[in-house]
Amino acid sequence: MAVRTDPVTPAGEVGVRAALRSPRRLKTEVLAGLVVALALIPEAISFSIIAGVDPRVGLFASFTMAVTIAVVGGRPAMISAATGAVALVVAPIAREHGLDYLLATVILAGVLQVVFSLLGVAKLMRFIPRSVMVGFVNALAILIFLAQLPHLTDVPWLVYPMIVVGIVILVGLPRLTTAVPAPLVAIVVLTAVTLGFGLGVPDVGDEGELPSTLPHWLIPDVPYTLDTLRLIAPYAVAVALVGLLESLMTAKLVDDITATPSDKTREAWGQGVANVVTGFFGGMGGCAMIGQTMINVKDSGARTRISTFLAGLFLLILVVGLGDLVARIPMAALVAVMVMVAVGTFDWHSIAPATLRRMPRSETAVMLVTVAITVATHNLAYGVIGGVIVATLLLVRRVAHFTEVVPVDSDDPGTRVYRVRGELFFASSNDLVHQFDYVGDPARVIVDLGQAHVWDASTVAALDAIETKYRGKGKTVEFVGLDPASSERHDRLRGHLGGEH
């Protein structure tokens, strides 16, 4: 029987203090941070280009986001940095009004994220269905893979065998040893081969110029007026919502992978604090990075805030202190790592024929909608929102169809009894009024609601309409069997909703 030797907290989460006392665990965290830092560099440069700013803005954002969230975040081992979703949102403000307005937008977005977290936005995560989560994961894997395609087209032929070698290392090395992260070995080996043989292949330096100075504190040079607020507020709200959604979804994914809980509210306001800090240090803002988080957690085995902190610190050291060497890392090595991240992230079980046969069509539809919207817009937030909307509509439709009205035999020939079963709300109660025989029923009608529940004002209005129609025929109707909550709602709203019109 294997005995776990990693230091853990009672909840099963590896603790920082205990990890610092464990050479084995600390080595894992340090090496994981180094691998993530290497993977962050080309991504941050690419996102800077998308946002229309200098590569330093994305690189500094990745440094400040990672270091700050390592301290204030609620999900240990999760990586936050500059992201494509945020880059897409801030690109217009950067293009039309310049860097200072972008930084002001990021700072305001961070403040809004703190406010949203205090209002309980993290609790909304429980309304995201599993099918949306599966779609989110699969879309993420597809986007990670698609992001590598530009590095696979119009490149020297040597790139392809190098990627194959990198993938072989990533797949084969863990079967021999897990002492060193396979991604780090792949990067080191391919870089050594490139430098040793002088291979002319695309490298990190081709992605953009690396900074040579440290980030410094600055205050955005913008007019502090209502006009400025009106200009940046829409972008700030979008950054805040997109960043929170992606971060909370990523936190939930890491929770599932590590079988440990996390504080989503703390993560939400932590993202806000990180963005505020990032804005004041000249960064473009960001949120959780799912691909790099998967490298950190799944591929490298990290479990603590140490790896997140070191990822940011190593990033700064690499680009500022060792920029010339880092610039020579072949993109083929990083592409190989990200391709395997995409393969490992995708939920292959969700598209297995056996799973598709068993899964309700509505669940599969929600998953596919989430994937389609995300891939089409390259925005995970849009995909999740679209998936939740479709899931909600399908659920409403399904629940509405469970409601039925059936006549029940009565000992009294002068009385007609109906029994209503199901959940009564706007979607199911709209047709309720048409389920009764107002002309053919006797003078007294009883509607038994003992197997139903009244959820909203629409249902009370429908009951009022039924009562009005029977009264117009000179008949009386009595509603019986209401549970306490339904009875309270019916008594409070009855006769006040215009049901007789």
UniProtKB/TrEMBL annotation:
Stretch forming the signal peptide: none
Subcellular locations according to the entry: Membrane
Gene Ontology CC annotation, any one: membrane
Main localization (coarse): membrane
Bilayer-spanning residue ranges: 30-51, 57-73, 101-119, 131-149, 155-173, 180-201, 232-251, 272-294, 306-326, 333-351, 371-396
Family matches, as InterPro entries: Membrane-Transporter-like (IPR052706), SLC26A/SulP_dom (IPR011547), STAS_dom (IPR002645), STAS_dom_sf (IPR036513)
Keywords annotated in UniProt: Membrane, Transmembrane, Transmembrane helix
Domain annotation STAS: ranges: 413-484
Membrane topology (UniProt): Multi-pass membrane protein
Top-level lineage group: Bacteria
CDD domains the record matches: STAS_SulP_like_sulfate_transporter
Keyword Transmembrane helix: yes
Keyword Amino-acid biosynthesis: no
Protein's recorded name: Sulfate permease, SulP family
Organism per entry: Tsukamurella pulmonis
